[in-house]
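Hi everyone,

Forwarding the result from last night's run.
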Amino acid sequence: MSREESADRDFHQWALETIYELVADEAEEKQDNSLWTSKKRIKAEASKTDFVERDEVKDLVNDLELRGEVVYWHGLVAPTDPDHISEILRSEAMAEYPREILIGRLNEAKQAATAETTDSVEVQG
């Protein structure tokens, strides 16, 4: 692995870990089941570190979305693990006005994440 690939992996890993932490923090702060964080909060976390610049967050989130590791929706970001996506879908199903386009994107992300999980189990097994 080249130095550049290693740096990209480290940046992506930091961003993904930060997203998971922020989603958990949101739920704890609000005493509810908050399933999203925001790009704004990720930028705020980036400003606390020398590792990632605030200006790089947009590109990091875009890359994670292209890789299928997060869902991005109008400034909101959520991880794409199947359990998390299922919770968001459940929340949308209960909404007074479900966002059909978002539901479609979430279903696609869930299928992709489930396929990845199945593939990794087959490789390990």
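Residues 3-30 form the longest helix (28 residues).

Cheers,
N.
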